[in-house]
Write a structure and sequence with these properties.
The complex is a heterodimer of chains A (329) and B (326). By secondary structure, chain A is of the alpha/beta class. Chain A has one domain (2-328): P-loop containing nucleotide triphosphate hydrolases (Rossmann fold), CATH 3.40.50.300. Chain A contains 13 helices and twelve strands. In chain A, β11 and β12 form a beta hairpin. Chain A is globular and about 70 Å long. The mean pLDDT of chain A is 89. Chain B has 326 residues and is of the alpha/beta class. Chain B has a domain at 95-173. Chain B is 35% helix and 26% strand. Chain B is built from twelve helices and twelve strands. In chain B, a hairpin with a 2-residue loop joins β4 and β5. The radius of gyration of chain B is 21 Å and the shape is globular. Classes of the chains: A alpha/beta (329), B alpha/beta (326). The interface between A and B is large, with 46 and 46 residues.
Chain lengths: 329, 326
Amino acid sequence: MLKADDLRVHFPVRSGLFLRQTGAVKAVDGVSLELAGGETLGLVGESGCGKSTLGKALVRLLKPTSGSIHFEGRDMSHIGQRALRPLRRDFQMIFQDPAESLDARMSVRSLIEEPFRIHGMGSRAERKKWVDELLDTVGLSAASAERYSFEFSGGQRQRIGIARALALKPKWLVCDEPVSALDVSVQSQILNLLVDLQKEFGLSYLFIAHDLSVVKHISDRVAVMYLGKIVELADSETIYRNPKHAYTKALLSAVPVADPKVKRKKILLEGDVPSPIDPPEGSAFGHRLNHPRYDETIGMDLSLKEIEPGHWVAADPCCLEPEDWKRLS
Amino acid sequence: MSEENLLEVDRLITSFETERGLLRAVDQVSFSIPYGKTVGIVGESGCGKSVTAMSIMRLLPQPSGKVLGGEIHFKGEDLLHASDKRMREVRGGEIGVIFQEPMIALNPVHRIGRQVAEVFRVHKKMSKKDAWDAATEMLALLRIPAPEKRMMDYPHHLSGGMRQRVVIALALACRPDLIVADEPTTALDVTVQAQILDLLGQLQSEMDMSVMLITHDLGVIAETCDEVVVMYAGRVVESAPVEELFGNPLHAYTKALLRSIPTLDTPPKSVLPTIPGTVAALADYTHDCRFCQRLGKKTVTTRERPEFKEVQPGHRLEICKECSDL
């Protein structure tokens, strides 16, 4: 349904007296992915790896620098805002912090009604009916409509954000850290709601989060991102049971397990994610690991290769076990 | 006061003066922190975890916040009635604090070196030069690469993980007996969180400190704590050694909390157990069991406050007919 091909989003870095472009932040640097109807694709990675930028580029809140995005066969990567507007009904976004993404001066009714007004849909009476239905769908009482978003708790506010995103009956949604600002007990309510909505309306999700247990719970497939690139992509069981890339392994081992009897050996990484302004020339993660084979990877093609059916991993000698590397090369 | 406890908090009551009257954010909270151990305080936002910590350090927002009752003993000393001068010595000297957001804890207009050296200047009355050297040593102890260079940096030069190391350096500078860490890794990525928790654990055993770790992450609790205190709506509902609490939770709230987190073993897209309702607003807290209030249950007990007592050695529980297993 959705297909991105070699997508790049670079932000110019300007400096000097005439603000000449002196470099670029390569936030998303050559990402290709597909999203099928009714599927959830999880996207994980550390902060600054470009996962939110990728999400925003896919819903065209950002203009990609190069590469293409095809939605149901139509190229929407470089069309203008006006031509984009009718298409926007099909894809929406749920943001991390509903306190910031909802206008505090608008009642819940006008917040949820806004998409209909922008798209000139329905009469006043119809819109009222639709808002009431949407509130019911996300589990809020009809009386909430006349109140303001700040009167609600975090979880209820996120429900308002979801109702707004669902208003135009989209086909797919980008959920950017939708539960990370919530308490665990509320988090599970919102996750259940997202799963229910997916079943009811056949939605597809691109689910961005840093909490790996949450991502595993909700996703069919998971993509792991590091420094603007996807380094591993597989269905979620496989990626958690049998990770191939060294970064995925480190990420998984770092997740704290809520069971004091489990004592695991952690892979502790040194240092931080390198700057996307001046990324290493070769394997980015190999550079962080100080891997002896790093020099070989400069200029090497490190793109994703299918190691097992449906399991894609970056062909990178620094980050793969020797036997996996042999199978790929 | 028991000999093996570094800190004892007994029936602490902290209130805030608001437009709606005097509201009790912390309502008779009791727990203790033994020497050399890590005690986790867990609960949802607004349950009073941070207010408890602020009460111990006497850093409540003034003039609205007040401790109205209870006792706090630190190494046998009554902290609630200590002089302001003495409290300034205790804070940063004998009790170190690590806050959640390192960008707020550090002053953006001063160099890292000056901020870390200041602790030595104030608490140890060191000369400028000695304090600077001690600060450099402290950064090296926290495995900050090239500490001499980092001393000259401003906080915004550093990554989140490095900044949090600087905050920990500030807290550990005087080799305190107790570290109060309020959500120290919540703002960090999992890989950096693992580094920081590992480092904190090592330094804790090297320096023989106790840690009070406030978090909402049960995974972090399970991996780092010796004992756990579960708070709900301003009260402690259950406290026990970590294996006991995870293996044999007795309060309905603790059980619900443990069930509601997805783990890597939960079947995908299955319905996660949730806790119905939401935490009542501070002004609407009932006097009887507050978890019953959330569940909308009419408690069988009268309007009496549920008793909090030791039910098994080391395992303490708030007794409510509906919510506790006994």
